[in-house]
Every structure is written in C-alpha cells, then in structure tokens.
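Structure in, sequence out. Go:
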C-alpha cells in the first residue's frame, strides 16, 4: 500500500479581520482611558433616586459616580475643611449659592435639579389624616424632625409647625434627627409615631408605599429648591461635568419625578 502524503499550509492571515480587531482594541482602550470617577455629596433625601441615576449615568457614559449621603449642613462644613467632593447635590439652594460666592464652587455651574415635597408621615396606616389634624388632636408621644440648622427639610417642618400654631405645644415631644434619613428611621422603626420626612422617602410607583401621610402644603414653608453645583475640586473633571449635564437630561428627570419631586 502506497503511503498517503498530505500537505498542510498555514492559514492565510485575514488583513481585514486583523484591522477590525485592532480597531476594537483601540476603541476599548480609548473608552477606558476617557472614563472617570466623580465624587458626589448627595443630600440624604435624594440618595434613592440618585442611586438609580448614577447606575444609568455609568451605563450611558462609562463614568462612575461615587456617592456619599448626608445632611447638607454637614457637607458644607466638610467642603470648607477640604473634603474632596467634586459635585454637591444639596437639599437647598442657599448652600450651593454660598459655596459659589466663597469661591469654593465654579461660578455659573449652579442649577435647581429638584423641588422637594415635605410630608407628615407615620408607618401606621390610617394614623395621619389627609389634613394633618393629627398634629392638633393626636395623642402621639414623639414626632421626628430633622435638625433645622443642618437639614432644609427640618427647617421647612419648623416653619410649617410655626404657621399652624402647634410648634410650642409639640416642642417637648420632638425627636431630632441629624438628617432626613435618620428622621425617617425614627418613624420607620416606631421610635416616633410620626414625623416630617421627604415625600421621596415614602413614595413608590407614584403612591405612598407604606403607612399614612399628609402632603404639607407648599404655602406653609419656604420652597425646598434643591440645587446642584460643581465644586472647585471638580472644575477640571470631565466626569463631574458630564454628571451635571446628565442630571439635566430627560432620563434623569424622569427618575426624579417618579420620586415625587418637582423640576
């Protein structure tokens, strides 16, 4: 039997395939190089919507937003003492304006990203009536409110109680939270029967998700305009500027509205 000889030849390289692979690698490296991180100080009332916005922002741009949540007054103290936040999403408009005036924020970068809604809320269904009369007639032992010196929602709550004429009578029953997140926890845990919180904390799919609430009329307190500002530490950050631009867009605004904020 004659031996069979087979000749094999190496596969010819495909120049087009190699070119495409090179282009894809270059594009990937370019996108990776351009993506950055932005450090964001977020008012406690806005952390839930901001977590959703940050995830969508990263998917859309490649930039990552690193979020820290707390009271606006405390963030101000940290910023003037050198905290390296690049963007502030405040619970008011006065703090960003002050930072801009003091040269700690970029001039002209400030804008209102949301208008907050104050609610009187209880974790117990039926406890808070639709007119907030429970403030006058209820036998509650404790009412939670955020520190009005640090938290704009706390200041709005104080203004509302003053206008309703119940502030002095309720004062001995007040439990003060450092920020609106802690105030919410006081009520959610039952340590306070009711409290003034942000609508965004108790709203889900356009309705009160748990317990009972009264939406405090805007006429009872100063508007809760929540401003964003580019801080001095972020003036050269592409990611910081991209985030502020994204917050103005339709996708972010849809999320903001879904939590009960005005725009």
């Amino acid at each position: 039997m004659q031996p069979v000889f087979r000749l094999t030849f190496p596969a010819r390289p495909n120049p087009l395939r190699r070119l495409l692979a090179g282009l894809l690698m270059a594009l990937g490296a370019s996108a990776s190089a351009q993506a950055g991180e932005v450090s964001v100080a977020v008012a406690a009332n806005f952390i839930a919507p901001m977590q959703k916005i940050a995830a969508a922002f990263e998917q859309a741009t490649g930039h990552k937003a690193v979020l820290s949540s707390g009271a606006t007054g405390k963030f101000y103290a940290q910023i003037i003492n050198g905290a390296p936040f690049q963007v502030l999403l405040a619970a008011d408009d006065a703090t960003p304006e002050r930072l801009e005036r003091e040269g700690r924020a970029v001039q002209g970068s400030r804008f209102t990203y949301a208008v907050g809604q104050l609610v009187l809320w209880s974790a117990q269904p039926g406890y808070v009536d639709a007119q907030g009369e429970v403030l006058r007639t209820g036998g509650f032992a404790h009412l939670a409110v955020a520190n009005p010196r640090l938290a704009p929602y706390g200041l709005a709550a104080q203004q509302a109680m003053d206008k309703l004429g119940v502030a002095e009578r309720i004062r001995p029953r007040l439990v003060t939270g450092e920020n609106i997140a802690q105030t919410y926890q006081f009520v959610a845990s039952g340590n306070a029967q009711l409290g003034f919180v942000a609508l965004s904390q108790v709203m889900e799919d356009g309705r009160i998700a748990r317990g009972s609430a009264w939406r405090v009329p805007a006429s009872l307190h100063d508007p809760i305009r929540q401003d964003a500002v580019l801080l001095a530490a972020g003036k050269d950050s592409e990611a910081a500027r991209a985030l502020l631009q994204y917050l103005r867009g339709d996708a972010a605004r849809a999320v903001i509205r879904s939590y009960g904020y005005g725009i």
